[in-house]
Design goal:
Oligomer: single chain
Strand order of the largest sheet: 11-12-17-16-15-18
Distance between the termini: 37 Å
Helix content: 25-40%
Structural class: alpha/beta
Radius of gyration: 25 Å
Shape: elongated
Number of helices: 15
């Protein structure tokens, strides 16, 4: 997640020459001030800069071309201070490739009742200038976010930040590379998908690499590098005695460290932003990557197990979108249920690979048999995840389209001790309730793999889905199965059956 600080949102204001140079200068002064104030708001995570006051077709097309070609511009905000005839915007909007937010605001908050005159009316025309612009964007069927309210309002800043974070995730996907070590878990449906269509739709590529290539990278790691990483393990985690310096399983910790360093070396040398593996295709690696994967996710890499490249990419995007916010985003799986009618719960976990960014305490570094994979006992970090609001998101391939499914949840403090379950874990209650939440997820075709988030809202993911141009299904406090099934039917009609 490097260079996020350098990214920009460009602020473009529309007007026309009808009002004269004096009015246009006022418009520009107001627009610069408005953009600077938005750019200074701590609630907005991406730098907002004033880019242009545009009054004609050529100017509009030129600034949108600049936005397309800019490596730092990740999105465009438009605002019509006065009336800006929408036909001027057509050719610019036709070529715009960056996400678009339409800010429907005006410079003044209040009407100056005692002094308002026609000069004031000619200058402050956003109420109908933005409607003209909104019409042409709708007619051209262009996805965008519309934010309404005075630009000083906290709610406006919050909505802009949601969209800006979605822009960050989308920008990070463009040209991103994800590595697959081996294939997906055999006979599994949901981890499959059309990688070519994904590259067309999302901008990232997924390619498979031989496990032998990874083994070569692992075996190239020096003893000095391993010793340095072991010191980090000892300082960062509560090591069980058998993994200590004189412990009977110390060699397993060395192997785990070597795997982490080999993986990191492979990912860095190839410029990858995430990866996936499966326990069925790890020939030549002594143990399943546990602590290695956990720590690499904490560094910002996307990951999902069993060859699930779609979830690995989603984990990466959500990590980028959540940059700087308290809490984390991590690969997760709905593992098992507690169907107590008075306290229904989902136990979320994965065999070894839950990101310690979610840990509510200093993790324990432990080693235990796994029971699958046929490898030596793997080292992993064990911890509980704290209580609080969250969500699970799943990206699935429906055959003729990609679908993003989001279920809002409430994580809860652990109810019971789990002395014989040595994995990282979280308990949550799906909204609106256990039965409805799970039923809606099943009806939507949601995967068992997800990205669990403590800091991404469903609003951010809604903006992300709009930018990506994909279907979104949200399961929240208001979800009712009868209406949800109608939404599924309508979406099927909209996207068309294959």
């Amino acid at each position: 997640m490097k260079n996020i600080e350098s990214k920009e949102i460009w602020f473009i204001t529309g007007s026309q020459h009808l009002y004269g140079d004096e009015t246009l200068q006022q418009v520009k002064t107001h627009a610069i001030h408005l953009a600077e104030e938005l750019g200074n708001k701590s609630e907005i995570s991406v730098k907002v800069i004033f880019k242009a006051l545009v009054t004609g077709m050529d100017e509009i097309r030129q600034v949108f071309q600049q936005a397309n070609h800019s490596a730092v511009c990740i999105g465009v905000i438009t605002w019509m201070h006065t009336f800006s005839p929408a036909k001027m915007w057509i050719n610019g909007l036709k070529i715009l490739q960056k996400p678009l937010l339409h800010l429907h605001t005006q410079y003044n908050r209040d009407i100056p009742w005692s002094s308002i005159d026609m000069d004031f009316m000619n200058l402050h025309q956003s109420a109908h200038g933005d409607r003209e612009f909104g019409h042409i964007v709708s007619r051209m069927r262009i996805n965008r976010k519309v934010v309404v309210g005075h630009w000083k309002a906290d709610t406006v800043a919050s909505e802009i930040d949601d969209w800006a974070r979605a822009c960050l995730g989308w920008n990070d996907w463009q040209g991103a590379k994800f590595a697959r070590f081996g294939d997906n878990m055999r006979q599994v449906a949901v981890t499959e998908g059309d990688k070519v269509e994904a590259e067309i739709q999302f901008g990232f590529s997924v390619n498979t690499f031989a496990v032998g290539d990874l083994v070569e990278s692992i075996e190239s790691i020096s003893s000095n590098e391993i010793d340095e990483l072991l010191q980090i393990y000892e300082e960062s985690y509560n090591l069980v005695d058998v993994l200590g310096k004189d412990g009977s399983k110390r060699s397993s910790l060395l192997d785990a460290a070597r795997i982490e360093l080999g993986l990191l070396q492979f990912l860095e040398s190839g410029g990858f932003k995430g990866f996936t593996d499966t326990f069925e295709d790890l020939h030549g690696i002594k143990q399943l990557p546990g602590i290695a994967v956990q720590r690499l996710m904490e560094m910002g890499y996307g990951f999902a197990g069993e060859g699930d490249w779609k979830t690995a990419a989603l984990v990466r995007a959500m990590k980028v979108m959540g940059t700087g916010k308290p809490g984390g985003n991590a690969f997760m799986e709905d593992y098992t249920y507690h169907f107590d009618p008075e306290d229904s719960l989902v136990l979320g976990s994965h065999m070894l690979e839950v990101d310690p960014c979610l840990a509510s305490h200093k993790p324990f570094c432990e080693i235990h048999p796994l029971g699958i994979g046929g490898k030596e006992d793997p080292v992993r970090l064990v911890f509980n995840v704290g209580a609080g609001p969250g969500l699970n998101a799943s990206l699935v391939d429906m055959g003729n389209r990609f679908r993003l499914i989001v279920n809002e949840v409430e994580a809860v403090e652990p109810r019971y001790e789990l002395p014989k379950l040595p994995v990282a874990r979280v308990l949550w209650k799906p909204f609106p309730d256990m039965e409805t939440g799970c039923k809606a997820w099943i009806l939507a075709g949601g995967a068992h793999h997800t990205c669990f988030s403590q800091n991404i809202s469903s609003g951010i993911l809604s903006d992300f889905a709009d930018i990506a141009g994909i279907e979104l299904l949200t399961i929240d406090r208001e979800t009712k199965i009868k209406e949800f099934k109608k939404e599924l039917t309508w979406n099927e009609m909209y996207f068309g059956r294959r």
